[in-house]
Amino acid sequence: MMAKPENIQILEKQSMLSNYAKAVAGMLPLPGAKSEALPDRVLRIENVTIDSDALAAYNRVCGLRLRNTVPATYPFVLSFPAVMNLLVSKDFPLPAMGMVHMSNTIEQIKPIAVSDTLTIDVHAADLREHRSGLLVDLVTEITVEGELVWRQASTFLRKQKTSLSGGERPEKVDNAPGADGATPATTLKVTPKLIGKYADVSGDRNPIHISKIGAKAFGFPSVIAHGMWSAAAILGTIEGSVPDAVNYTVDFGKPVVLPAKVDVHTAKTDAGWEIALRHPKKGYTHLTATVTAR
Question: Residue 198: pLDDT above 90?
Answer without folding.
Answer: yes
